[in-house]
C-alpha cells in the first residue's frame, strides 16, 4: 500500500481519521464503548494534554481498556504528545520507566483503579473525566515522522529496552495491514496478546481504530476461554501467539473465523497445520519485532514454506544476515549508509521473493572455546521421542568464567538419562546439555514469549 510509505498521503488519511468516526454508533469494544465514546474520551484527553506545562516529558499510558488506549492514541496524534507504554504493570517497571523518561502524568482507566497504588508518587492521574472540556481534535500539522510512542520491552536479560515509534511507523503499519487483509467494520477481532505488546497494540487497538472493526476487551489465554469467546462473539479474526496455538490443537473455533494471525515467536509447522485442518483457514505468521514492525509473513496452508517480505519492506541477505529498509522501522535503529538495518536473525535467501529463518545470530555462544548453536541443540532435543516442547539456555558455570548448556523439556514419560545418551550421538561434547529438567508447563510471558528469566531461575534456584 503506497500510502504507508508516503508521508503526505498518510498525513491526509490521519487527518481524516481525526475528523471523527465513520460509524460512531458501532461498538469499538464488543458490548462496551462505541466509536463515539472513543472520540469523546480523546477530546477530553486532548484538553488535558494542552494544559500540561512541561512538554519535554511523555505521558505514561497505564490503562488496560482498549477503548481508553485508542482514545489516548488519537489525542496524542492530534496534540503531538508522546505516550510511554510500560512492558508490565508492576511498581518496579513503572518506576524504571519514570526514571528513564521522567513522566509526571499517567492515563488510567478509572478514578479508582489499581494504577493509583503502583504509579510513582506525585504522578498526575488522567482519567477521561478529569476534564469537563470537549475540544475538537485538530487535523492540521500532524507530525507523521514525529515521535508518538515510547515502547518498553522486557528483553531476554530482564533489562527493559526502550524503542521510539513515530506516527508513520505505527499508523502506517495499521493501515497497511488493514488494507492487505481487507479488515473492515464487519470484522470482530479476538486477541490473546496484551495491547502493551507491539503486536497486540497493532491488531487489537490500532487496526480496529482505523478499520472500524470491533474488538473484544478481554485477553483470553486458556484454550476453553479462547474458543468460548470466539464462538460467543462470532469473531472473524483471531490474533494469537505460538504458545496459544499449541494448546488449541484439535480444537475447532467457529465457522465465522476467516483470518488467523500469529506472531511473537516461531509457530511450529505441526501447530499451524493442525489449526488449519480444524478450522479450514491458514495461520498468517507475522515475522518482525517491536523495533522493526512487521517484516514478512507466511501461510503454510497456502504452501508457503518460507517468509515473504511485506510489500513496503526492502530486504537483502548478506553473509547469512538479513538487512531491511522499511517505513515501520523505529527511528532509534542504526542503519547503514543505504538506510538498511541489520537484523539479529540468521537467514538464507530462497530465491528473489522469500527467505528462510535459521535462528538468532545471538543464539551462537562459546563453550570451552567451541562455537555452539543453541537453536541446533533445541532442534535435536525436540526430535527425541515424546518431547513436545524444549527451551535451551546458557548458564554461567560455578566459577562464572564460562557457560554450560541447560535444557527445559515438556513431554510425556521422558527419561533424562536416555535423552542425554541419545543426543550425545548427534551433538558434539561442548553442545551437550549439562542440565536437563522436565516440567509440565514451560514459563511464558503475557506476550506469549518464553520467560527466560524464570527458566534460568528454575536451574539456578537452590
Structural overview:
There is one protein chain. Strand 1, helix 3 and strand 2 (83-85) form a beta-alpha-beta unit. This protein has 3 domains: 2-191, 3-Layer(aba) Sandwich (Rossmann fold); 220-361, Rossmann fold (3-Layer(aba) Sandwich); 368-460, GMP Synthetase, Chain A, domain 3. The N and C termini lie far apart (54 Å). It has 13 helices and 22 strands. The strands form 5 sheets. Strands 8-7-9-10-11-12-13 form a 7-stranded mixed sheet, with helices on both faces. The protein has 462 residues and is α/β, with parallel strands linked by helices.
Distance between the termini: 54 Å
**Total domains, how many?**
3
Number of strands: 22
Runs in which pLDDT lies below 50 for 5 or more consecutive residues are none
- Radius of gyration, whole Å: 23 Å
Q: Please report the first level of CATH classification, the CATH class of the largest domain.
A: Alpha Beta
Strand content: 15-25%
Question: What do we call the CATH homologous superfamily of the largest domain?
Answer: ANL, N-terminal domain
Structural class: alpha/beta
Strand line-up of the largest beta sheet:
8-7-9-10-11-12-13
Helix count equals 13
- What summary fits the major beta sheet? 7 strands, mixed
Going by CATH, the architecture of the largest domain would be 3-Layer(aba) Sandwich
Amino acid at each position: 500500500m503506497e500510502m504507508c510509505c508516503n508521508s503526505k498521503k498518510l498525513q491526509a488519511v490521519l487527518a481524516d481519521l481525526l475528523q471523527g468516526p465513520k460509524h460512531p454508533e458501532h461498538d469499538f469494544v464488543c458490548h462496551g464503548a462505541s466509536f463515539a465514546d472513543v472520540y469523546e474520551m480523546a477530546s477530553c484527553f486532548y484538553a488535558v494534554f494542552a494544559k500540561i506545562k512541561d512538554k519535554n516529558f511523555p505521558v505514561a499510558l497505564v490503562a488496560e481498556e482498549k477503548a481508553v488506549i485508542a482514545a489516548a492514541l488519537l489525542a496524542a496524534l492530534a496534540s503531538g504528545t508522546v505516550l510511554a507504554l510500560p512492558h508490565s504493570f508492576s511498581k518496579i517497571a513503572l518506576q524504571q520507566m519514570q526514571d528513564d523518561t521522567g513522566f509526571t502524568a499517567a492515563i488510567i482507566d478509572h478514578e479508582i483503579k489499581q494504577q493509583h497504588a503502583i504509579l510513582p508518587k506525585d504522578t498526575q492521574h488522567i482519567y477521561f473525566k478529569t476534564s469537563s472540556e470537549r475540544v475538537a481534535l485538530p487535523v492540521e500539522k500532524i507530525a507523521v515522522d514525529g515521535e508518538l510512542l515510547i515502547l518498553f520491552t522486557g528483553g531476554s536479560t530482564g533489562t527493559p529496552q526502550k524503542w521510539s515509534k513515530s506516527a508513520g511507523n505505527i499508523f502506517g503499519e495499521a493501515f497497511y495491514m488493514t488494507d492487505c487483509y481487507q479488515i473492515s467494520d464487519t470484522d470482530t477481532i479476538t486477541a490473546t496478546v496484551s495491547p502493551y505488546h507491539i503486536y497486540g497494540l497493532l491488531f487489537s487497538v490500532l487496526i480496529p481504530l482505523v478499520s472500524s472493526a470491533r474488538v473484544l476487551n478481554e485477553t483470553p489465554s486458556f484454550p476453553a476461554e479462547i474458543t468460548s469467546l470466539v464462538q460467543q462473539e462470532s469473531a472473524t479474526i483471531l490474533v494469537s501467539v505460538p504458545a496459544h496455538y499449541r494448546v488449541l490443537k484439535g480444537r475447532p473455533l467457529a465457522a465465522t473465523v476467516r483470518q488467523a494471525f500469529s506472531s511473537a515467536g516461531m509457530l511450529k509447522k505441526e501447530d499451524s497445520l493442525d489449526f488449519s485442518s480444524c478450522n479450514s483457514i491458514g495461520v498468517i505468521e507475522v515475522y518482525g519485532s517491536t523495533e522493526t514492525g512487521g517484516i514478512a509473513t507466511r501461510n503454510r496452508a497456502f504452501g508457503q514454506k518460507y517468509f515473504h517480505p511485506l510489500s513496503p519492506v526492502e530486504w537483502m541477505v548478506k553473509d547469512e544476515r538479513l538487512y531491511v529498509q522499511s517505513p515501520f522501522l523505529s527511528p532509534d535503529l542504526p542503519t547503514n549508509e543505504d538506510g538498511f538495518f541489520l537484523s539479529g536473525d540468521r537467514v538464507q535467501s530462497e530465491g528473489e521473493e522469500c527467505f528462510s529463518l535459521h535462528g538468532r545470530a545471538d543464539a551462537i555462544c562459546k563453550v570451552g572455546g567451541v562455537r555452539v548453536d543453541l537453536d541446533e541443540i533445541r532442534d535435536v532435543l525436540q526430535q527425541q521421542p515424546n518431547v513436545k516442547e524444549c527451551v535451551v539456555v546458557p548458564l554461567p558455570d560455578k566459577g562464572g568464567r564460562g557457560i554450560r548448556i541447560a535444557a527445559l523439556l515438556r513431554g510425556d514419560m521422558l527419561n533424562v538419562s536416555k535423552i542425554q545418551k541419545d543426543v550425545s550421538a548427534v551433538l558434539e561434547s561442548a553442545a551437550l546439555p549439562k542440565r536437563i529438567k522436565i516440567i509440565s508447563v514451560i514459563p511464558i510471558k503475557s506476550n506469549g514469549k518464553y520467560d527466560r528469566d524464570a527458566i534460568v531461575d528454575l536451574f539456578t534456584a537452590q
